Amino acid sequence: xxxxxxxxxxxxxxxxxxxxxxxxxxxxxxxxxxxxxxxxxxxxxxxxxxxxxxxxxxxxxxxxxxxxxxxxxxxxxxxxxxxxxxxxxxxxxxxxxxxxxxxxxxxxxxxxxxxxxxxxxxxxxxxxxxxxxxxxxxxxxxxxxxxxxxxxxxxxxxxxxxxxxxxxxxxxxxxxxxxxxxxxxxxxxxxxxxxxxxxxxxxxxxxxxxxxxxxxxxxxxxxxxxxxxxxxxxxxxxxxxxxxxxxxxxxxxxxxxxxxxxxxxxxxxxxxxxxxxxxxxxxxxxxxxxxxxxxxxxxxxxxxxxxxxxxxxxxxxxxxxxxxxxxxxxxxxxxxxxxxxxxxxxxxxxxxxxxxxxxxxxxxxxxxxxxxxxxxxxxxxxxxxxxxxxxxxxxxxxxxxxxxxxxxxxxxxxxxxxxxxx
Length: 422
Hints:
By secondary structure, the protein is α/β, with parallel strands linked by helices. It contains 14 helices and 13 strands.
């Protein structure tokens, strides 16, 4: 066998596996809402226990106000909202207070976290509200996640016997520039994979929106058990699994506000999660290019001579058909598609492959404008970041966070304000 023939057959094998996997994710992704809803059945009946909803906030990004307001608009009988922030004051906190004041029937508290318990900035922001939560059942969501009114009830519906964590698949909405559309295509491509996995009964920790019991997390070791990782969602899922509790996806997706982005921002995010996946998913991470159309197109070009087609045609047809199928999937799901989608599709693939390759050569990631080491040594970087942040700040006390009305006394390392609604 000649070298050219070897590469042609190798390309044919790669192309066949990649296309088969892609087609499977399309079918399974479309079926997921029906499969997961049926799987959950009516195991919980109409039981809707009270929930403590925690939202960590930092920046006033695009869509922040709509996303936060959606939490207060949940069609759920009993819940409280706890908003955690590392700062004494910020534009995001000002906006959050206005939104809380406009929903007087929902109990809301603002809590300041000192931010030294864990490597993950997000986990530090969650720690104080988690300890202060009134109820055992806890729902967390990122500040850029918008919920439909029935989202929290849908999460509870999936919280059946043997389940320790329910997560939502994020779907990108309202991209406002080209880089944002690349980000949206990346998020929605990942959403297809997650929905496909969910249809097969496989769950992963995805931290954009999560539901779990605080008591279950405590039995699994609490914050201390997951403090040495940047991927707190994956760590929560892993620790709960060690105690016999599985992770499932809700049958409803959640909307991730995308807004305007820069190419540097989306590359840093891609690289961060590539590095984290390489650390946590050592077996599957090297196989990720099998799910990408660009390597499949190269494989198609190599395999094309086997059916008497020129290589450029195999390359072009693979990309074109892949894009059309992915766009059709998005339209069936009701996800956003625009005239920029073809270029966003190509931009996603180039950035993703560059980040994947770079992840093999670095442990450094950027998060919230701070550099971290994805290994456990990240604690060193974290301490430096926290110390530099706190220089010049007033000590955390009851007067540290200003609100339109008098505050309660704060706990150690947190200032708290509470407005009782209803």
